[in-house]
Amino acid sequence: MVxxxxxxxxxxxxxxxxxxxxxxxxxxxxxxxxILIKKAAQSQGIIVTPEEIQVEADRQRYQKRLESAAATFAxxxxxxxxxxxxxxxxxxxxxxxxxxxxxFAQDVEKYFAEHRLDFEQISLYKITVxxxxxxxxxxxxxxxxEISFFEAAHLYDVDEQxxxxxxxxxxxxxxxxxxxxxxxxxxxxIGEVLGPFQNDQGFELLMVxxxxxxxxxxxxxxxxxxxxxxxxxxxxxTYFIHNQS
Length: 245
Hints:
245 residues, alpha+beta, two-stranded antiparallel ribbon, 6 strands
């Protein structure tokens, strides 16, 4: 039973809600992932020390500006967990990170060499509008210099956050883009307007501000390990389920 602000909620009610929200499968999958991670970590002799847990707990407290024990306990209470449960969660995260490093750190350079194009990046601006005709009209105005891309995004983009940022979408990897769009973007010249392309919100125009060559830096290294680890986890889960049936 879960106590939420003095109100008791039965576990069955939580499970029923997760089913109704189509979230139960995802939660069950994460539970099985945790079982598989612990089993693999034990087989490799991976452990997490109390000192490592304390360092990570302090980092999280600093990040959340929990400057006192009282503030930390209040935050934990709001999250409906105990200090021991929080520490167990931290331990699980650290075990997963150590296991991923143990399994795949030695393969990062080879993976990067084989998938180098995936890690090229672009600094991208985007405008999404609800109608294709509007997107086409905006592209014409942009090409004729009647309005700048930044002004058009600020005035017309359906996404409020992107409007405030004048169309800035961020730095994106090639692998995160639709293959057709990636091919167009990475063959475009800087400042060229592309589209309209259809997306879930309507029709988008794109403009590349910068092309960034692939580089095996610490961020990319971690992303490669994470990607390989997730692929490994999915394979282990498939094998585990198959052997249980």
